[in-house]
Design goal:
single chain; alpha+beta; 4-stranded antiparallel beta sheet; 19 strands; elongated; disordered N terminus
Length: 432
């Protein structure tokens, strides 16, 4: 599922007051911006992980055809069924399908209706407040048992630098934006640090359950769910497990009705099964391809491609292009451990964008060897037969060797003395 950072905001004591925005964000607030791509799981995938760790969730099945959805509804054999379209965007309940069906979440007591609804969901685009304007095609639906919720609470476990480890965050007010609760009634936010070597102690879990408002036998049941959620948190190398709501049913059950899980990207090597579930069908293809080469790419709406090492330098490059009357076509950060092949692949991504009319390379070599960048640039220019103007500014480690490589290549590369010079030349190149 699309991951929420709400609980981090709570722990750090963030409030509704606005913070100063970087010029980059202000200037391009109307451009298409998206964060670095993390592991994305659908709702049913997150619930499957929870189920495998003994966390109480609704009974459910997944279907990719209307007949399968109907069969799943009959197999559940429950009083009421909830049918949910599976896409990564939020706001599904108020979304609209291009089939004419309104709502990506439906309740019914008749299994036959599930088949009819699924027939209007599967293969059609669902548009919500978080999707592109044309929506996202629905390929799977989740058919689940509908449970009544008599009370909703909020619970999360996350890694937090301020606490040097995992922290539990809870509130008896769930099912709403937790940021609003933190801003209006901060006394209803409860936090408890966890000793990562010791884990969640019984008394900690029971105290949090009491803080969430569970009483009698439900307090022990909620405490058990809290401990199981922590086991899941460790098991999958999560940085956050957020349950909103952690609900109480009229029948006396404590159930995790919805969950968002963030994963430690550096743990991929030991979480192969989890990362294999990554659903990138809804991600921008260029961003997905960039991630394969450990490149941080964000598409923008301009025509000057930016090829930079370091996020701060990339933002500064976008800013100065704008300052000189140009518009950046992207934000591309090579990072520090770049190799020639990554430079080549980065050029492939940039030149594949039909909007790009010029490329500005801005490298400040600290741990990056400028000669490696120069070799990658010349290789890419020759093999890709670069057709657009290329402006290069290099400074730092091995820069003289890098400049020699570019000069002796015989390629039509425009050198720049500094960032301001580079931006001026890039803007001038597209105005010719």
């Amino acid at each position: 599922m699309a991951a929420s950072m709400a609980s981090q905001a709570v722990v750090r004591g963030l409030r509704a007051a606005a913070t100063p925005k970087h010029l980059f964000l202000h200037k391009f607030k109307s451009a298409r911006l998206s964060p670095r791509r993390w592991l994305n799981l659908q709702e049913y995938q997150s619930k499957k992980l929870m189920q495998e760790s003994g966390v109480a969730v609704q009974r459910f099945y997944v279907a990719d055809t209307a007949p399968d959805a109907l069969a799943a509804a009959k197999r559940l054999d429950v009083k009421e069924i909830v049918l949910k379209a599976q896409i990564l965007a939020g706001g599904r309940g108020k979304g609209v399908f291009d089939s004419g069906l309104k709502g990506g979440v439906h309740l019914t007591k008749d299994p036959a209706v599930v088949g009819e609804l699924a027939n209007k969901m599967l293969g059609f685009n669902l548009t919500t407040k978080q999707t592109p304007k044309d929506g996202v095609k629905v390929k799977t639906v989740m058919v689940a048992e509908a449970l009544d919720i008599s009370r909703e609470t909020y619970f999360a476990i996350l890694m937090d630098r301020a606490w040097n480890g995992p922290v539990m965050v809870g509130s008896p007010q769930g099912g709403v934006d937790i940021e609003e609760v933190a801003a209006r009634t901060p006394e209803l936010i409860f936090k408890e640090a966890i000793d990562i070597f010791e884990g969640v102690r019984d008394e900690q879990a029971l105290q949090m359950a009491a803080n969430l408002g569970f009483k009698g036998p439900l307090e022990r049941q909620a405490a058990d769910q809290i401990k199981r959620l922590y086991d899941l948190f460790l098991k999958v190398d999560a940085t956050q497990v957020e349950v909103n709501p952690l609900g109480e049913t009229p029948e006396g059950q404590v159930v995790c009705f919805d969950a968002k899980i963030n994963f430690d990207d550096n743990a991929e090597f030991r979480q192969k099964a989890v990362f294999a579930m990554d659903d990138n069908a809804e991600s921008d293809p260029t961003e997905t391809e960039a991630a394969k080469w450990d490149l941080k790419y964000i598409g923008l709406d301009g025509n000057i491609a930016c090829f930079v090492n370091g996020a701060g330098l990339a933002m500064a490059t976008c800013d100065i292009i704008d300052l000189h009357g140009g518009k950046p076509a992207n934000f591309l950060d090579l990072g520090g451990g770049v190799q020639e092949r990554q430079v080549y692949e980065a050029f492939k991504l940039l030149t594949a964008d039909p909007k790009v009319e010029a490329i500005l390379v801005n490298i400040f070599g600290g741990i990056v060897n400028c000669a490696i960048i120069a070799n990658g640039i010349t290789k890419a220019c020759r093999e890709l037969e670069l057709k657009v103007p290329l402006i290069v500014r290099l400074e730092g480690t091995n820069v003289q060797e890098a400049k020699r490589i570019l000069k002796e290549s015989g390629l039509p590369i425009t050198s720049a003395e500094d960032l301001d010079d580079a931006a001026k030349k890039a803007v001038a190149a597209i105005k010719k």
